[in-house]
Design brief:
Helix content is 49%, strand content 19%. The strands form three sheets. Strands 6-5-9-8-7 form a five-stranded antiparallel sheet, with helices on both faces. A hairpin with a 2-residue loop joins strand 2 and strand 3. Its EC number is 2.7.13.3. It catalyses: ATP + protein L-histidine = ADP + protein N-phospho-L-histidine.
């Protein structure tokens, strides 16, 4: 049953027991202290009474007579009444009582200790007498020579002292009840607060929940990062660390030791999203080598039922998915589609040329047919030989051949110039296809939408230290103020009607080109010499052998 209790209930019961124990201890201590103080006060008061009587010359004078009781008894009764003492006993050194509250006790021996007083000392004791247990003080009465002639005992019964203590107990009990009441109220308020924060769960349940949370956090394929209101990454899982290039996070790290966003290696758009804390749904952000899909929402605390308070916001939670492989497959699919379209265009073009050759042969013009076929073959073979001699990569050559056929079909002239013979060995062919394919696609689209003559130029220079691609088009060019924007994911200057690939292809190509160039440690510059020009320099990974 105890294990089912919530933290709030356990704390309330523990705090209530603590207040009860504290009240009991405080009450017992106060009672003992009050009792000791009452006995001490009673002894001090009796000492004052006995001392004043012993200093009265009347006592010495009466002690020298034959019947001291006749003089001292009325005096002692009057002082006892005025001083509120239970008894005042004046006695001879041999214990014979001269005064007593009960007349029948006169002349009888005193019950109690007198030896210290006979030695001239004053002392206080608690002892039982004829009136019961009492607090009494015995003071010697000395003559001028220092001889003890009589003894004075002034006392108050324990019953009277206990009555005074009982009066004080009421005050002590009232204080204890006040402490208990306010302690219980404080425990209840604290328990109510903890119940709202922990949602009524017990520590075992919270420990189990934390174990589940740790397991889920480190087993999910998505990256998860929690950012508090101070701009600190208080927690992120292993997948987020891998996707964002962070150091693995320790599970027991204190939130105060969490790194700030400004100290983490985030790119501009991703950092701006995390710092803003705004909600985001399936937003695409490019890092140095990855394409990430990010969702972000505020981390909202629980709201008690029937409460009008707004829920507390503790920060934001962002989930991150890697879309790099999907985009790579999309790029490869787009490349295959381009090659397929190029083959279709070439098939259509070669069918027309074949019909032309057949017609010339039927007309008996064999030399013209041979010349026509040879010239067409020379142009295609020359382009193929130049590409293979320069970049030494059949896929790149096929890509350029396909783009040339596509450009011809759309009324655009694609001019290819190559130089060098170092090749592109060691460079990722997928990245090269992404760079060159997207640049040629954009250039062909820009030239096709421009004025005549429509022209795209591709310069390929494969040197010993680097491979350079320069793509120029005869289109309207790029606004200098938009150069940084065109490299952002999702930004496009074309509408869906202008883009033959539809809305799916807009605002993606140049962002992927920038990412591929960065991945290959290259550089890309954009200029407008009569049209848009993109110049890409990729360092050669394999140096030329001497």
């Amino acid at each position: 049953m105890f294990h089912r209790w919530s933290i709030a209930r356990r704390l309330f019961v523990a705090n209530l027991l603590f207040v009860l124990v504290l009240t009991a201890v405080f009450g017992a201590f106060s009672v003992l202290e009050a009792r000791d103080r009452a006995y001490e006060d009673a002894g001090s008061r009796m000492l004052a009474i006995a001392t004043s009587i012993a200093n009265n010359p009347l006592v010495l004078q009466a002690a020298a007579t034959s019947d001291p009781s006749a003089i001292l008894q009325p005096y002692a009764l009057e002082v006892m009444k005025d001083a509120d003492a239970d008894f005042i006993t004046i006695m001879a050194p041999d214990r014979t009582r001269w005064t007593h509250p009960r007349p029948e006790e006169l002349g009888k021996p005193y019950i109690g200790t007198i030896e210290p007083a006979l030695r001239g000392e004053t002392f206080t004791e608690v002892t039982a007498g004829t009136l019961g247990p009492s607090v009494r003080t015995i003071v010697p009465v000395k003559d001028s020579g220092g001889t003890v002639k009589a003894l004075v005992a002034a006392g108050i019964t324990v019953r009277t002292v206990d009555t005074d203590v009982a009066e004080r107990l009421g005050v002590i009990g009232g204080i204890a009840l006040v402490v208990l009441f306010f302690g219980s109220i404080a425990s209840w308020l604290l328990g109510r607060y903890l119940r709202s924060v922990t949602r009524g769960w017990g520590p075992e349940q919270l420990a189990q929940l934390f174990a589940y949370y740790e397991s889920v956090l480190h087993s999910v394929r998505e990256g998860v990062i929690l950012i508090d209101t101070r701009g600190k990454a208080v927690m992120y899982n292993d997948q987020a660390a891998e996707l964002l290039g962070l150091e693995p996070s320790e599970a027991d790290r204190s939130p105060d030791d969490a790194p700030k966003l400004s100290d983490l290696p985030f790119d501009g758009s991703l950092r701006a999203l995390f710092e803003s804390g705004r909600p985001a749904h399936d937003e695409i952000h490019l890092t140095g080598s990855r394409i990430l899909v990010v969702n972000q929402a505020p981390a909202v605390g629980p709201v008690p039922a029937r409460s009008r308070q707004k829920p507390s916001v503790y920060g934001t939670v962002a989930t991150i998915r890697d879309r790099t492989e999907i985009e790579s497959l999309g790029t490869e699919l787009e490349t295959m589609k381009t090659l397929s379209d190029a083959l279709r265009a070439q098939t259509h073009e070669h069918a027309n040329r074949l019909h032309m050759i057949v017609s010339l042969l039927e007309l008996g013009r064999t030399p013209q047919a041979l010349e026509f076929a040879t010239k067409d073959l020379e142009l295609s073979q020359q382009l193929t030989d130049d590409m293979l001699a320069s970049v030494d990569e059949p896929v790149m050559s096929a890509l350029v051949m396909g783009k040339a056929a596509e450009a011809h079909e759309r009324g655009v002239e694609l001019v290819v110039r190559t130089s060098g013979s170092s090749g592109v060995r060691g460079l990722e062919i997928q990245d090269l296809v992404t760079i060159l394919g997207n640049l040629l696609d954009n250039a062909i689209d820009a030239a096709a939408s421009g004025e005549m003559p429509r022209r795209v130029e591709l310069d390929v220079e494969a040197g010993a230290a680097a491979v350079e691609f320069t793509v120029r088009d005869s289109g309207p060019g790029i606004d200098p103020e938009s150069i940084d924007d065109v490299l952002q994911y999702g930004y496009s200057t074309k509408s869906s009607q202008d883009d033959p690939r539809g809305a799916h292809g807009r605002g993606v190509g140049l962002a992927l080109v920038r990412q591929a160039v960065q991945r290959l440690n290259g550089t890309m510059t954009i200029s407008n010499p009569g049209g848009a020009q993109f110049h890409v320099v990729l360092p050669a990974p394999i140096p030329e052998e001497e």
